[in-house]
Amino acid sequence: MDILIVHAHHEPQSFSSALYRQAETTLKALGHTVETSDLYQMGFDPVSDRRNFTSVHDPEYLKQQLEERHASEVNGFASDIEAEMQKLERCDALIFNFPLWWFGMPAILKGWCDRVLAMGRIYGGPKLYENGVGQSTKRGLAIVTTGGGQTAYDGWGLNPGMDIVLAPIQHGIFWFNGFLPLEPFIVWSPVRISQEERVAYLEQLDEKLQSLFDEQPLQLAKMEDFPNWGHDTQKRFMVVGSRKREIDEKYMTLVSAELEMVARWRKEGKILNFTIANPKSPNWRGFVTMRGRDRQEIETLLSQLPLIDYLTFEITELMYLPGF
Hints:
The chain has helices at 15-29, 39-42, 64-74, 79-90, 107-116, 162-165, 167-174, 195-210, 249-267, 295-302, and strands at residues 2-7, 33-38, 93-99, 139-145, 180-181, 185-187, 235-243, 271-276, 285-292, 311-317. The mean pLDDT is 95.
C-alpha cells in the first residue's frame, strides 16, 4: 500500500518527530511504500494565494475556489503544490503527524490543507464525502502530541473533549474528502512523562500501524443521507435504559462484552452520545442518543445487547430545535 505521512514539527529532536520517524520506519518494514512531506524541513510555504497557481482565471479579483477550479482544468498548479497533490492522489492512507497547538493543527499543516486540497482537482461537485478522492476505502490517521494531560480532554475536563477538538480533521478533512478516519493515536503530554513511557508509546504506535488497514474505521454519516444539504434523513432517538433485574455473577461476566458492543456501535455511527450513572446507584440509568431509520431499527439493535435480559429501555424520537 502507498502511504503519505505529512509531518508538522519544527524540532527534529521532539517526540513528535520521533513518532514521525518511527511511523516511517515501521510502515516500510511492513512492506508499504511510504512518501513523506516533512513540512518544516521542506520549507513549505503555508500561505495560500496566487502563488498556488501558474494559471490566472481573473487577474482583477482573487476568488480562491474559482482559481482552483480553473487551475484544475488547465493544469495550472504551481510545481510544489502539484507534487503534493500527486502524493495525496497516490496514497492509500493519509497520516497527519503534529503537535496540538491552540486546539488545532500547526499553521504550516493547515496551510498544506489550504493549498493542496483544491476545489476541482481534489474536491467539489460529486467528489465529496463517500464519493471523495479517498473513495471511502483510503484511511486517514492523526498522530498527535499534546501539552495537557488526558483528563483535560476526556469530556469531563476543562478543555473540549478530544473528539470535538479533532472533528475539523476527522470529519472536515479526512471524511469530507472520502478518507475513512481511524481512531487517532494520541500521546498525552510527552514532555511530562518518563523515557520508559515514551518508549512504550512508540511500541503502541507500531501496534497501531500494523493494523492500519484492518482497524474498523469511524463510520461518519454519508452525504446521501442529507439530500440537497438538508437535514439528516435518519432519525435521532433518546434511549434511557434501566435495570429490571438485580446484578448477579452472570451480569458481571457480560459487562465487558456489553461495552465492546457499545464501542462498536459508536464507531459505526449508530450511537452519537453515551453516558451512564454510577453502576452502584440504586436508580441506575443509561442515556444513549442513537441514529437510525426508525424505532424498529433501534429496538432490533438493543435486543442484541449481551445484557438485554437485565435491562429495559424507554425510546423517544427526538426533534430538531433551531439554536439548541
